[in-house]
Design brief:
4% strand; 4 strands; two-stranded antiparallel ribbon; mainly alpha
């Protein structure tokens, strides 16, 4: 049997020693998986208490949740502005005129209703996702990260994908590639 030594002070340990007789440190056993017993600070070598395992440190997100909070506020403001436009007769007239200018030939009133429902749903879902990301990231919850990834993907689509799509759908771009 190989001799065993204290990992704290180097004192030789006998086979029956569980703690070092000199410093009170627990005998180290690489195969043992139970939590370590440690003497409390300032106590003699006769009194021991179970050490509590430390949880891994939480990531420091600092300002990131507040970006999502700002996004939730942005979408709520957009929702309120659109609600004001739809509620006011002058706003509905502007929507009606914009649809006529765009060449919509169907029943304009029903198109306004469909568009209003779609915009309300889109903005409400966007605000809810931003709020979920904010609260989830503040509490370090997995669903907060999922909501944050969905929001980031949506913003990428809005900020990059839609402008590229608009450029590709222009008449000049299609004609330059021989597509009518």
């Amino acid at each position: 049997m190989t001799p065993s030594y204290c990992i704290n002070c180097g004192q030789a340990l006998d086979q029956e020693h569980r703690f070092c007789p000199r410093c009170g440190a627990e005998r180290w056993d690489p195969l043992e998986t139970a939590p370590a017993l440690r003497p409390p600070p300032g106590a003699g070598s006769q009194t021991f208490q179970r050490a509590t395992p430390r949880a891994p440190a939480a990531p420091q997100l600092r300002w990131l949740p507040f970006v999502f909070a700002a996004g939730a506020v942005f979408w709520l403001v957009e929702l309120a502005q659109f609600a004001a436009i739809v509620a006011a007769p002058a706003g509905r007239d502007q929507l009606r005129q914009a649809l006529i200018t765009a060449g919509i030939k169907q029943d304009i009133s029903s198109v306004i209703v469909y568009e209003s429902v779609a915009v309300f749903l889109f903005e409400a879902v966007a605000a809810a996702l931003h709020a979920a990301a904010y609260f989830g990231l503040r509490k370090i919850r997995p669903w907060g990260w999922i909501a944050a990834v969905i929001v980031a993907a949506a913003w990428s689509l809005i900020l990059v994908g839609i402008p590229v799509l608009v450029v590709l759908l222009r008449r000049e771009t299609r004609q330059s590639f021989g597509i009518s």
